[in-house]
Amino acid sequence: MRTLQCDVVVCGAGPGGSMAARYCAEGGLDTILIEKKAEIGAPLRCAEGVSKKWLQEVGIEPDPSWIRGDMKGAIIKSPQGTTFQLDESKAGAEVGYVLERHIFDKALAKKAAEAGARIMMRTSCTGVIREDGKLVGIKARSMGEEIEIRAKCVVAADGYESQVGRWAGIDTNLSLSDIDSCIQYRMCNIDVAPDYCEFVIGSVAPGGYIWIFPKGNGVANVGIGVMGRLCKGDGDAKRYLDDFIAKDPRFAKGQILEIMGGFVSTCPGLDCSVDDNIILVGDAARIIDPITGGGIAHACRTGMYAGKVLTECAKTGDFSKKALMAYEKMWRDRMEDKLYRNFMAKEKLATLDDETIDELIKMIKTADIGEVNVYNLLKAVKERFPKVVEGFEDLI
Amino acid sequence: MIVDVNRCLHCGGCVGSCPQNAIFLNDFVLEFNDDCTRCGRCVKLCPVSALSLEAKA
Q1: Is A127 an interface residue toward B (CB < 8 Å)?
Q2: Which residues pair with A146 in a beta bridge?
Q3: Which of A241, A303, A392, B28 has the most CB atoms around it within 10 Å of its CB?
Q4: CATH code reported for the domain at A176-265
Q5: Does domain A2-48+102-174+269-343 have CATH number 3.50.50.60?
């Protein structure tokens, strides 16, 4: 069997994997980045909306080639049709871009390649290799050939599927409350605001929401997430989305150009995302904003942190869990509070009926919130509807 | 497990949701291994109802 050697093998060339590979390679590590699919960034499993401010934090220069739309704001809508419009002047950094993921993901992989990482396409991890109990690499299938890739550390960046971590003994299982089953249509010929991302919450999407993210020229990503616990098993996500589209006149002449599925986790991250000789990043580590389901920024941050920590570990040759805990600390210091707060908000939101949601949106419309972000919205809710934030008021 | 290959979107949602890690997605092929306990979680969650425990009548 063909065996490859490297310092770090990264499984999955999404944003998290490519960032990890880039920062490992920049740190001088011999890095292999493997990707199961035949194309990086496609097929799409994402709504493509991101905020702006984190890009600089992770060393990504905004590039017009992967920015499909620069949003002016966001619209939050109740099932009764009450809307709250957030404009960029008030929404600050929460408003952002709609991406072209198939270009964005390739741009990040290209950065990894330029830093010296080797990219192996059509190569999927099929298991881990242990010798005397120690994790020493992965088994993989590369263009049909069974191979071994031996490494000092494995970075699991295999997204929602999160199988690599489980093969290595890390429990990445989710409860049904922390899974959103999603489906999205790329629709054309529709009459939606060209520069506002729209979110519809309430019974139209139990435990989740419907999104309309414009892609320009009467095209948008129209999708839905439904909480797993509230799914009945008859293709709920598609059924709810189809119902919504059928009732909204803006889609009367709409046609679907592309259908895509894709799940998100909505927990506040794994209890621990490292073990001896392995780090989990991004969706694989279940590090996703539980209320928005947004994971690109989190994947890029955790990928970068992984690369930086592994660069340090290489100096002493210590890739033990203890050494890798520096990564765990880094992401927790940066994101844990917000993840937990938004997790609690998600749990509460799933219990509210449409009337309460409508009341909340009406209240937010009239309240003077200052800069609108999830934190300030929750603060306003806490003042007027303390019951809604019961149990996590200390975080607000 | 029965996979309706004409409905499946190959999104991998069932893979990441399987408590047994018993489902594998390779491009357009969804495979179940012997660890599958037929718990039905993937059936419940599939966004397009492509999975079932028994063949549909």
Answers
A1: no
A2: A141
A3: A303
A4: 3.30.9.10
A5: yes
Domains of chain B (ranges; CATH) run 2-52 (3.30.70.20)
Q: What is the DSSP track for B7-52?
A: T-----HHHHH-TT--EEEETTEEEE-TT-----HHHHH-TT--EE
- Cα–Cα distances in Å, from A301 out to A135, A273, B5? 25, 14, 36
pLDDT along chain B (57 residues), means of 10: 95 97 92 96 97 83
H-state helical runs in chain A: 15-26, 54-57, 88-91, 101-114, 164-167, 236-247, 296-316, 321-331, 337-349, 354-366, 374-384
- Checking ipTM against 0.90, whether it exceeds it is yes
Spans of all domains in chain A: 2-48+102-174+269-343, 176-265, 353-395
Closest partner residue to B13 (CB to CB) among A38, A172, A262 is A262
Cα separation, A330 vs A309, in Å, equals 9
- A270-281 burial, b for 16+ CB within 10 Å, e for fewer? beebbbbbbbbb
pLDDT of residue A23: 98
The whole-number pLDDT of residue A394 equals 83
Q: Do B44 and A231 touch (CB under 8 A)?
A: yes
Mutate which of B21, B23, B33 to disrupt the A interface (most A C-beta within 10 Å)?
B21
Residues of chain A with pLDDT under 70: 91-95, 372
Contact at CB, B13 and A263, closer than 8 angstroms: yes
Phi–psi pair at A392, nearest 5 degrees: -135, 25
| Residue A88 confidence (pLDDT) | 74
- Over residues A119-155, the pLDDT tens digits come to 999 999 999 999 999 999 999 999 999 999 999 999 9
Q: Which of B15, B41, B45 sits opposite A163 (nearest CB)?
A: B15
Rounded Cα distance between A392 and A344, Å, is: 7
A226-251 pLDDT, tens per residue? 999 999 999 999 999 999 999 999 99
